[in-house]
């Protein structure tokens, strides 16, 4: 036997989910076979299966206990240029150093392994339970990554499977080959401090790249990277709003009473939904709408405080300079915004309910990468098919 990648569409999940149990065998009848492509191919199989509405899934007696592991040793990961990064692999390793989180095969052979979310939590738990003792990890469907010629592995979103000290022949073999006086587990820190901004940037880098045309035609919630050029600043609406510093909710200016004697320095009051009385404890926040384009189309992106600040090098507080109640001349666009026109950035935007249900072509920006990284010069042909990770529920046979 062997493994093949099978997908079930989100809409069909409720129908098929209960028919599939991890580790059990099923007979599939009537399904679609397509060529396996993309960056996250679960198996070496040249094709992948897609379940259709008319597919029948029938229980089947177990034929063997084989898990069809596709184990790749560290030597090959490091040195075998023919090993494609597009196909996920299985790796057995011993955790010897947490914090940098290295696994090793022999004393002289190590491999960096980056794990996210629940995968990382499992490792921390295993460390806590094992004390100084080493333990073995089996990471199935791991992604090979390269950075500056150095290869490492990571989990591939939620597709990977992590088992700690699994009772498998392959694992026993691995343990048997370990040096007897092997390294003790050196835990650098029980829970390593993570550089949040670095982690966020790295997570953002994992979103698939899309063109604007594809973004406009996408009807499921999700995040994508889009390389786009700002061609105008949209000033139809104010580029800022106010937040209450006490309750963190949006604050609105209290209109001044008409015929009121206009005094100089008269304070502007704000009301918000979280506080009982009007007050002045507010700060502005960016909500800057930029018009963007790429070779396929045009759209609008909304930038919030963090990203607008990193692009303009000025916070909204600095930009307004305390003039909270002056009516901004709508024809006068602040120079720091105009400086953005003509520049190209890599944005991470989210497709949300508004975009799907109401057809809004304005997308919220979750992150902006400053400076184009090399990947942009080497953008893969975008295709939702190969990145349709949300619909993948099973990578098993
Ligand atoms: Zn408030």
TrEMBL record:
Classification via InterPro entries: Euk_RPA1_DBD_C (IPR047192), NA-bd_OB-fold (IPR012340), Rep_factor-A_C (IPR013955), RFA1B/D_OB_1st (IPR003871)
Secretion signal, residue range per the UniProt entry: none
GO molecular-function terms, A-Z: DNA binding; zinc ion binding
Key words, A-Z: DNA-binding, Metal-binding, Zinc, Zinc-finger
The keyword DNA-binding belongs to this UniProt entry's keyword annotation: yes
Domain Replication factor A C-terminal residue range list: 224-359
The keyword Metal-binding appears for this protein: yes
Domain Replication protein A 70 kDa DNA-binding subunit B/D first OB fold per the UniProt entry, residue ranges: 1-60
Family the entry assigns: Belongs to the replication factor A protein 1 family.
Cross-referenced PANTHER family: OS03G0429900 PROTEIN
Record's protein name: Replication factor A C-terminal domain-containing protein
Source organism (scientific name): Capsella rubella
Classification lineage: Eukaryota, Viridiplantae, Streptophyta, Embryophyta, Tracheophyta
């Amino acid at each position: 036997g062997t493994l093949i990648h099978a997908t079930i569409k989100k809409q069909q999940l409720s129908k098929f989910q209960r028919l599939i149990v991890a580790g059990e065998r099923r007979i599939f009848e009537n399904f679609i076979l397509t060529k396996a492509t993309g960056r996250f191919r679960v198996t070496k199989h040249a094709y992948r299966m897609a379940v259709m509405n008319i597919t029948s899934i029938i229980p089947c007696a177990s034929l063997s206990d084989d898990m069809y592991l596709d184990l790749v040793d560290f030597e090959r990961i490091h040195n075998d240029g023919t090993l494609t990064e597009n196909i996920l692999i299985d790796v057995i390793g011993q955790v010897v150093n947490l914090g940098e989180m290295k696994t090793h095969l022999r004393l002289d052979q190590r491999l960096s392994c980056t794990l996210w979310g629940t995968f990382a939590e499992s490792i921390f738990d295993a460390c806590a339970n094992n004390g100084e003792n080493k333990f073995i990890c089996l990471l199935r469907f791991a992604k090979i990554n390269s950075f500056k010629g150095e290869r490492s592995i990571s989990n591939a979103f939620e597709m990977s499977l992590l088992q700690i000290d699994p009772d498998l022949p392959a694992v026993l073999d691995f343990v048997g080959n370990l040096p007897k006086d092997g390294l003790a587990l050196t835990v650098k820190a029980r829970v390593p401090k993570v550089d949040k901004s670095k982690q966020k940037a790295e997570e953002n880098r994992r979103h698939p790249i899309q063109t604007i045309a594809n973004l406009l035609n996408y009807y499921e919630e999700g995040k994508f990277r889009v390389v786009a050029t700002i061609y105008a600043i949209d000033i139809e609406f104010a580029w800022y709003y106010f937040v209450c510093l006490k309750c963190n909710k949006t604050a609105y200016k209290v209109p001044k009473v008409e015929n009121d004697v206009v005094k100089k320095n008269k304070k502007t009051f704000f009301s918000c939904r979280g506080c009982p009385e009007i007050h002045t404890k507010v700060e502005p926040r960016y909500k800057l709408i930029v018009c963007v384009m790429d070779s396929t189309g045009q759209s609008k992106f909304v930038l919030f405080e963090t990203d607008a600040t990193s692009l303009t090098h000025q916070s909204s507080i600095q930009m307004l300079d305390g003039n909270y109640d002056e009516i901004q001349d709508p024809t006068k666009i602040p120079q720091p915004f105009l400086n953005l026109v003509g520049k190209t950035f890599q944005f991470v935007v989210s497709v949300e309910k508004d975009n799907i249900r109401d057809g809004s072509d304005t997308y919220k920006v979750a992150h902006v990468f400053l400076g184009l990284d090399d990947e942009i010069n080497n953008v893969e042909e975008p295709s939702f098919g190969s990145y349709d990770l949300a619909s993948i529920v099973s990578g098993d046979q």
